[in-house]
Design goal:
Length: about 130
Amino acid sequence: MDIEDLMAGGEGQEAGGQPSPLKSLKVDLDFYKESIKEVATEMMAEGYTLYPIFVAHQHEISIGEIVLDKNELNTQWSIHASSLEEFVERGLIKDDRKAYFEKSFKNANAYMCLFVVVPEGANFVFYPY
């Protein structure tokens, strides 16, 4: 799934004509991507995980460790670094779906795996660096 797939109508507009918050996420990701890639590389090189997951959110969450704070960076979205292992441990990915997730996971050297949290829900997206 690509970020555009999450945007209502693919044009960055919600049904009510309001701009989708995901449009600002794309802007922030383009700003953050080098930092996110560096964190992902470190997480894999240090043996923390082969499946880094970055949680993109605009509100407070309690998963992972904050790596890019929207308040400090004057952006719209904050990013927390997490892992497949933490998502399984917390029950966000069921143990019996772990193998499917690993098989579906895109190359972490080319794509960031995002868990995008919005008021309507959350979804995984792979976004190129």
